[in-house]
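User: I'm putting together notes for a lab meeting next week and I want to include a structural view of one of the chains we've been expressing. I don't have a solved structure, so I'd like a prediction I can at least talk through. The sequence is below, exactly as it appears in our construct file.
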Amino acid sequence: MPFLKSEEQHPMMLAVLQLKGQILLLMPHLMLAGLQQQVMLDGYRVVCSSGMSGENDHEFNVTHPTTSQTFDNLVPGRLYTVSVYTYSGVDGAEDERVESNAVSETRRTKPNDVGSVTVERSNSSPNTSLDVSWTAATGDVDGYRVVCSSGMSGENDHEFNVTHPTTSQTFDNLVPGRLYTVSVYTYSGVDGAEDERVESNAVSETRRTTPNDVGSVTVERSTASPNTSLDVSWTVATGDLDGYRVVCSSGMSGEIDHDSMSLIRLQARHLIT
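Assistant: Thanks for the context. Below is the predicted structure for the 273-residue chain, given as structure tokens.
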């Protein structure tokens, strides 16, 4: 039998309102959980609103004692306010529905990842710079956090916050010949009393800078066999390197180039015969 209310009696508000944000690949949603007062009530009206022009509020009536509701099909990266009203009664000839004041909480859905990331050696300085570009994320986006990391001990990550709609960034002053991983995160929101900054998953790509040239090359006729051999030496290149490829060519038709790969970093002398 339903509990009878006088028209002066209002239902109690929720004692606790908890909200946690989550977004799936194709279905961003918010999860709502509340703790009801130990009073007679019939249910809750739960409203999720962005306040954005053109987007309708999402609303559910949840019967007691259920204290949770999921909102689907929200916009990735958007800030929503969820309000819960306790209600008692049903509008009719002998009753009326009465609602409490709202208890509200804001939470932002997780923004979408960028579509793809491209990392190229810079045309102007391929030894020390990498050019990064990416496809813009869909949904609500405030910017992108772009991180370039070698993972090497003693080298700090290079990091930039890039405001939307910019979709490119150059990293300078890198180490020649070093392998770097560049990661791009979409972010929405700004940390504060009524908002929070939320980031997407990283989309990453690796690229190595061009190694430095050797300092100089010296070629001498071999003392042991000057008619058929040349001794080659060079100064070690700076930066990261694994070895040297040494090529001896006459440019004569029919004569194959002599090509040798040295994988010993400190070997800076090679004999070509």
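A couple of points you could mention at the meeting. Residues 117-208 form a domain with the Immunoglobulin-like fold (CATH 2.60.40.10). Confidence is low (pLDDT under 50) at residues 1-6, 22-28, 262-273.

User: Perfect, that's what I needed.
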